[in-house]
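Q: Can someone sanity-check these two? First one:
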Amino acid sequence: MDVEQGLQELGFSAYEAKVYLALLRHPGATGYEVARHSGVPRSKVYEVLEKLAALDVVHTSQTEDQVRYRPLPYRTLLQRRKNETTALIEHLSAALEEWARPEPDGPLITVRGYEAVLTRSAEMLASARQDVFLSAWPKEIARLSPQLVELEARGVDVWLLVYGTMQPPVRRCYFHEPPSAVGRLTEMLPALVVVVDHSEALLASLSATTPVTALWTRHRGVALIAAEYIKHDLFLAAVAERLGPELPKIMAQVQDLQRMWFG
């Protein structure tokens, strides 16, 4: 990680970050020495030092006729910022709870980009309290597996449908042969469907040939339909596994349904 950039993300200016890092390396430096070690112009360095001192991030001491500067220990700085951020989030959480008004029917929100879709999926899983239904390809399941394992460990019912093969990450894991690589679904697959607590759903197309997009919603009706879709495929996967070699014979007797399904 770029430490200087990280300090700026904590609220330091570019010059403040340079000065603080210089003092960590050279505690007790004079203003002249800070300028030399940090690369901050001498015409600016004292102004920066005064501002950091006012923020209690830099401390001064007098040695003979020189002022020397020492940094606040970085662990103390980080803990202080952590405490401030936690307090701010708790205050905002309470304030926004009063401010926000729930929508009776959640809208369908478009999520764009592969990483954004996986991030939203992970955020959904983090909020799960009762059950999770997830249908996906091995690549995406591997990304989400640590959360799925943690959810199952704390008592959330996790139901997983894998289109392909992989080591089962959770107890209730079923496998389905991936759809054909040709046909009307080509531009939509792989796909990802996540349903949390029958109240929140994400449906994504992760095709490499088209822009990755997903629909995310807290519309309970959509969430219930998505959950039933996964339950249906889970049930079929379980039945197919138990039928074994008898499955092709049964499928041969329902060719009209096969034409309807596969086109």
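And here is the second, same format, sequence then tokens:
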Amino acid sequence: MVFLIINIMSKNRYIDTKFWDDGYIVELDPTEKLLFLYFLTNPLANIAGIYEISEKRISFDTGIDEDMILNILDRFKNSKKINYIDNWIIIANFPKHQNYKESPKIRKGIELILAEIPEEIRKGIDTLSIPYLYPSNYSNSNSNSNSNSNSNEKDEAKASSSNFFLSAKDYFIAEFEKEFKETPLVNFGKDKTVVDRSEKLFKNEDWKTLITDYLKSDKAEDAGYSLAICFSTHTINTWKAGGLGKPVNGNFNN
């Protein structure tokens, strides 16, 4: 695998040279391809793939009409690739392409950016089910707000009430560390909802086999090492049907 390292005003971005062969990208028209690449590489982009940018700025930089930009963004949103909420761009799975596994500095930078994201934007990521990687200390509320501190503690206590979720989370982390020699990024909001909902689909503890198989699959490599994706209905059905193989046409869809 080859990565093109682009320097943008002293900021490096890793773009896989397989970008142009990706099953999703090849189906885009030239304008859509330009806009998709722009969102990955513009000067306001960061290593988390979540940043604020106006439609006017996008139009000025790309020469694309603002109405057309919004129409294309709707298509990106429906494909769960890129979302645009209140002038904030959210790129699905962007951190996993930024070499964060090998660089504690990049990982820390992602965590700092996520900590500063407005609460309504954080909620938007979860409610739209956009695949994303979160630091282990990520919360769906503004940790800098004293007025929300009590609510945060109650939410965390409520999230800890699910024995199945806690067991799945602990096993996922243990298997991930065994496989990759590092601690995974986990979203304790969205992941808990998906995991709890899937509990009835398993017999005994066969969910452990699912986790082990998922972490070694191409689906995890492409879609992101996410507990929510691992326990999604589609992943479980694929696993029960005979295993998790290579993704079709290199697509990142789960």
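A (reply): Looked at the second one. Residues 3-127 form a domain with the Arc Repressor Mutant, subunit A fold (CATH 1.10.10.10). The chain has two domains: 3-127, 159-247.
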